[in-house]
Every structure is written in structure tokens, then in C-alpha cells.
Amino acid sequence: MKRTGWISVIAVFLAVAAFAFGILSRRGAPDASSLPPVEARAIDAHAGHEGAPSDTPSTRAYREAADRMHQAMNIDYSGDADIDFLRGMIAHHEGAIAMAKIAVEEGEADDVRGLAQEIIRAQEAEILRMRIMLARHEDAPADPVRP
After folding, report:
1. What gap in Å lies between CA 52 and CA 36, rounded to an integer?
2. Which of 11, 50, 104, 106 could bridge 58 with an S-S bond, Cβ 3.0-4.6 Å?
3. Which of 107, 110, 120, 117 is nearest to 56 (CA)?
4. pTM for the whole thing?
5. pLDDT tens digits for 35-92?
6. Strand locations in 4-146 (E)
7. SS3 of 119, please?
8. Distance CA 55, CA 50 (A)
9. The dihedral of CA 11, 13, 14, 18: what is its sign?
């Protein structure tokens, strides 16, 4: 079979698999008419789960890290897209590092711990790069009129 023929076969297979997954994943999903109105649903995704007796130390640590990350990502926007992106992404990467450190300390699977260590190294390097860029952009904000 020609190369384009195999690509077509693979593409059709992936499309069918994605469709089947979508159909199967809807089984057991609650009927939309049985859900309470959006206004009545809790806004906080962690509502009712804080400090549950079944929470493991890693679960509590992940919750705390995620909460810190979301709080840090709630930046005061400057109106400069570049500066706001860098500030938000630094906070996001710091949160990813915090979660990866928990995986390294609490995790048992070597492959997951290895990935977490890679994430720590990569994101620390990216944070350093973003801090340098942020300092440069904060010293010379973008021209509000684009060419």
C-alpha cells in the first residue's frame, strides 16, 4: 500500500476511535435536564472536598499547590499583552514545579517521578528566561500603536 494509503487508513481509524470514545464516554454521564441550574452549582471546584478524611498527604499538597498557583495567576493586568503573559506564565510554571516536586517526593512510579524531574528542570529554565524577558519589557513597555 502506498504511503498516502496508510496515512488515510490511520486517519480513518483515529477518527472512528475518537467518535467511539465520545459515544462511550457519554454513557453514565448525567442527563443535562437532571442537573441543577448553573446558578445553583458550586463555583469552587474543590467545594466540599477540603480536608476530607480520605485525603492523602499528596492530595492535600496538590490542593495547596494548585490554590497557590491560581492565586498567583490572578495578576493585576497592565494592558500590555507581553507583560501580562509573562507574569501569568511565571506563576503557572511555579505551580507546575510545586506539583512536580510533590510527585517526586510522594510518587512511587519511576517513570512519573522521572517526568516530574524533567518538568522541574525545564520549567525552572523557562522561568529564568521569562523573568529576564519580563525585566526587559517592564523597562521598555510596548508601543501601544502597532505598525
Report:
1. 24
2. 106
3. 107
4. 0.60
5. 556 555 455 555 555 556 678 999 999 999 999 999 999 999 999 999 999 999 999 9
6. none
7. helix
8. 8
9. positive
User: How many Cβ atoms sit within 10 Å of the Cβ of residue 114?
Assistant: 13
Take residue 79 and report the three cell numbers written for it: 494592558
Q: Please state the rounded mean pLDDT for residues 90-103.
A: 95
| Set of cell numbers at residue 3 | 504511503
Q: Answer for the pair 91, 73: CB distance below 8 angstroms, yes or no.
A: yes
113, 104 contact by CB (below 8 A): yes
Provide the grid cell at 31.
442527563
Read off the DSSP letter of residue 116: H
- Amino acid at the residue 125: A
What single letter denotes the amino acid at residue 145?
V
Rounded Cα distance between 23 and 13, Å, is 15
